[in-house]
Write a structure and sequence with these properties.
heterodimer, A: about 20% strand, B: about 100 residues, Ubiquitin-like (UB roll), binds magnesium ion
Amino acid sequence: DLDIDSINIGTPEEYSEQSTEPAGALWAKHEASTRTLSATLTEQLRLILAPTLATKLRGDFRTGKRLNIKRIIPYIASSYKRDKIWMRRSVPSKRSYQIMLALDDSKSMADSDEKDQNKVDLAFQTLALIAKSLSVLEAGDLCFLSFGQDANIAHPFGTPFTENAGANLFQSFSFQQDKTDIRRLVHKAIDLFRTARNNSHGATADLWQLMLIISDGVCEEHETITRLVRQAQDERIMIVFVIVDQLNSESKTQSIMDLQTAEFTADDTGEMKVTRKKYMDTFPFRWWLVVRDVSELPIVLSAALRQWFSEVVETGS
Amino acid sequence: MDKTAQIRIQLESRDPDVTIKLPENTGPILVSTGLRRIALSTLVNNLLENEKPIPFEFLINGQFLRTTIDEFLTANGISSEVTLSVEYVRALIPPSHVVSF
Ligand SMILES: [Mg+2]
């Protein structure tokens, strides 16, 4: 009395073939279902990005918007010959952004006995939403990863994100990977960001790197990951962890906020003691947010991105 | 599978005895897949806040757990990515067992 569905161990390719919806149709569906949200997010990000694109007023010009006070004395002293006393808003300095989006492709994302597609749909909608908004904004270079036991590039840095790219993107996901190796993911991401930084043109001081991880958030090796996250931070790579935490009242699914961990240690007498902790208390990422509904995404993501960009502006000269 | 592998388990009991019923809000718990019956029994007693531990046995998909969780998963082709339903029952005292007072 084996349940055939629960022992599906096919490769992603086989799984895609079994799937009734081809990647192109899936992309079109999720792109359409998030179109309004995408427009909202794009607009919010445009507002955030606009001031980061403009620079301060700079001198020295014969005409301009505001007087450069430092030039007044030399101007008078030179009998009004040194007349480049005006400042103008100069051509905006083009800061460059490299944004990586990593989506959890492990089985736990589709973990349910029933035909509950909610979490997968939510993940795909998030992907479509962010891909669309960021590519419309031309906010920078985009890269997409799928991860589980491995981390694979679904769309590389340095390639424009077209409509076709959207369909290709979905082909990289099957939600059948048997492990969720976040340590490996962060390790690979740091490598990819280093390469992308080396390949980027212009001053690397003006290059800003952001990684968004979308996952149900269940991972192992918290201590090792904490160290890697710190290393990423040292290399000025910011990682924001978006936890997809769809609550389903019909199934036993519960929020990650209630998840506990149990650890076992032997005391002095050799007796086994158990310690229970809240899972999120040791969560290795500094910036994380919980999303329960795709309609919350523009608000929570733009809040996260606004924070990131404002940090960029403050740090930038 | 490496030593750090973990799995979410949802403990439940069908025993009508309310004294071994877990608090209503007991959700999934993340544990090492290296655990065996004894450790799980310790965990249930911890959840029940029992001062005097009751020995428990565990059933997954109707089968008694006689190995580590990891070995059980491998033998039954279950992924550690799923939330595993684990039923606990009072361990029956074997007939040969001599209870000393
Ligand atoms: Mg997982």
